[in-house]
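Residues and backbone
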Amino acid sequence: MIWKSAIKKYENYLKIERGLSKNSITNYLFDINSIIKYYKIDIDIMNTKDIDSDQIQSFIYEEAKYKSSHSMARRISGLKSFFNYLIFEKIRSDDPTDLIEAPKIGRKLPEVLSISEVEKILTAIDLSHAQGQRNKAIVETLYGSGLRVSELINLNLSNLFFKEDIIKVIGKGNKQRLVPMGEYAKKQIQIYIDCFRSKNKIHPSYEDVLFLNQNGKRLTRAMIFTIIKKYSLEAKILKKVSPHTLRHSFATHLLENGADLRTIQVMMGHESITTTEIYTHMDTKYLKSVMKNFHPRKS
């Protein structure tokens, strides 16, 4: 099968059978395109069987010269996924990535803000600015409900249940979950909707979208990153702050105040509890309290 047809089938597989998000699919396809570009493969003519393990290894060797271990692990994982798919569909009989091992990478602890640092960021928001109230509602929602950026920008008015204090979130793989709406977030969202959003000229295609730009359309991921970076700098926070930092802070502060990992896992939308367990490595105070309260030989 020629590369073009194989890639299209693989893309449909990722979208329909695995239910991956648009961003995840883009990353997987980028891994494939990287080797296509490296070997100048004509996807309209060449067959996927024409690439062998030696070529894959040479490509990985060259990439490793200037990429981090994390990036290489990502690249190798993407290529393995593609060739495993080709074998599963009987497009190929052998896997050219079979002997390639991904580099071992340590689990990197995410940056986390203190409660006072979160408050400094919120204080830095100028409410006299045209988009000030919207931005405050955005920060409160990211921190108050632990949403991913993609989940935030895709929030609709119909996802908000103010009476029940619940947000319906569409997460990775189009999976839905219900997340409590923080008290402060609820207040700021209501002010934004009633006093500011209602006065905007809204594009007909985005009437149900919660957070809008000045043109009445959905905000982009890049804009959310810009907003968070702007206010963290103005608040003189020395840490590298992104929207994900607020999400990590949400989980860490829950753990510090006694929430169990299983509950945090559900609210974060983690498929595996092992992903959530990273927060236990960040909070030694919590670990000490567990030891003190539950070990039979506690002091």
User: Anything to note?
Assistant: The chain has a mean pLDDT of 87. Strands lie at 160-161, 166-170, 176-180. The chain has two domains: 3-88, 115-292.
